[in-house]
Design brief:
Layout lengths: L6 E7 L6 E5 L11 E12 L5 E20 L10 E25 L2 E19 L11 E2 L13 E5 L12 E3 L2 E3 L2 H6 L11 E6 L4 E11 L2 E11 L2 E3 L5 H7 L35 H6 L5 E3 L2 E12 L11 E9 L3 E4 L18 E9 L1
Antiparallel strand pairs: 1-2, 3-4, 4-5, 5-6, 6-12, 7-8, 8-11, 9-10, 12-13, 13-16, 14-15, 16-17, 16-18, 17-19
């Protein structure tokens, strides 16, 4: 049993001692127990006759119990804040790792091998001692852990989207009815839209399936390899055209040119009409539109990660003065070759520029 208060590490140092500081922000809880974890791993290695196909398969499962979290507390007995740290939750993660290697062709001086890597991973909250853990009650972008029982740890939620009206204004839902009362929409955040709430659960922001396909080809002293990476089963939120950014800060957005401009456009576009952002009737319009479900997109994609080519200089004739030598070239960050979203966005860099393509040429040797 633990009877000392919790201390939080800070980035500050004491001005006198220059030692790192910790700060006590929570009450002592004598019932607080150590967090517990349990992990199971089951795997096997295999290979066919002649080792034309080989690999490994592993299943893992990890459970965490008595995990720390904040619980509501009568703040009038202390006065600092209305929560205390207790053993509030349990979590479970599980997945599969598969690594397959195949020798596709091996004839004389020509060889072609493929390495297929597949990973599957999910994690969720299985117990949380709070009424807030029963359903989503806030907008989430998937960047923090949200302990909703039975749901992914990193979840995305959005306002339920009702399209544009004939004035070009974005519509949400209040009590199951279409509405442009954005304050009322914000005040009716309950999941999900079926029950009349304004909020909908989109999915996890963490890929459930991911891995690589690496091909290696060799002919005599020339070798060639390339890597395709994939991520599947997750979502991301794209940026939105907002009036406040355009009118207030001069920040534009490509969607401006696709905006609603006349009655009937609501059937062909989801971009609202342009109005002055300081109009009273449009209070909350940007906030609703920015976090509407129309901007939550599937992140599934396949990426061309790299391409390598190399030529070995060393041979039987050169062994007297050159033990090993190689001229090589590399191309990296070659871009996405398939994506599920129709906006042509890079799910890994939806709000910024992706790393530029890189080309490298080199030479290495030993005498």
């Amino acid at each position: 049993m633990r009877k000392t208060p919790l201390a939080t590490s800070t980035s500050f140092t004491n001005s006198i001692t220059n030692f790192p500081m910790q700060r006590i922000n929570d009450l002592n809880n004598p019932d607080l127990r150590w967090e517990k974890s349990r992990q199971l791993n089951i795997g096997m290695d295999f290979s066919s006759k002649g080792k034309h196909i080989s690999g490994s398969i592993e299943y893992y499962e990890k459970k965490g119990t008595d995990l720390y979290g904040n619980t509501l507390y009568d703040y009038t007995t202390w006065g600092n804040k209305g929560t205390v740290v207790t053993n509030t939750s349990n979590m479970k993660g599980q997945g599969i790792d598969i690594n397959l290697r195949s020798i596709n062709i091996s004839r004389g001086e020509f060889n072609w091998q493929t390495n297929f890597i597949y990973n599957y991973n999910t994690s969720k909250t299985t117990r949380y001692l709070s009424d807030d853990a029963k359903e989503f009650n806030m907008l989430l972008d998937g960047s923090i852990i949200t302990p909703i029982v039975g749901e992914p740890l990193y979840s995305i939620t959005s306002y339920r989207w009702g399209g544009l009206n004939n004035q070009g204004d974005p519509q949400g839902y209040v009590n199951g009815q279409l509405s442009t009362d954005y304050n009322a929409i914000g005040n009716s955040i309950t999941v999900d839209g079926i029950d009349g709430g304004s909020l909908v659960f989109i999915g996890t922001s963490v890929p459930a399936h991911f891995g690589s396909i690496i091909n290696e080809l060799r002919w005599k002293r020339l070798s060639f390899s390339f890597n395709l990476m994939y991520k599947l089963g997750y979502y991301f939120r794209k940026t939105a055209f907002t009036l406040s950014e355009l009118n207030g800060s001069g920040i534009g957005h490509p969607d401006y040119y696709k905006r609603w401009q006349q009655p009937g456009d609501e059937f062909s576009t989801n971009i609202p009409a342009y109005v002055y952002a300081d109009y009273p009737q449009y209070t909350g319009r940007d906030g609703f539109y920015r976090y509407a479900s129309v901007h939550a997109l599937k992140g599934d994609h396949i990426r061309f990660h790299y391409l390598n080519i190399a030529f070995d200089l060393a041979s039987r004739k050169t062994k007297r003065f050159l033990q090993s030598g190689q001229v090589y070239g590399n191309l990296a960050n070659l871009g996405i070759i398939w994506r599920s979203n129709k906006e042509h966005l890079d799910p890994d860099y939806p709000n910024t520029y992706a790393p530029p393509r890189q080309a490298t040429i080199g030479f290495r040797c030993s005498f």
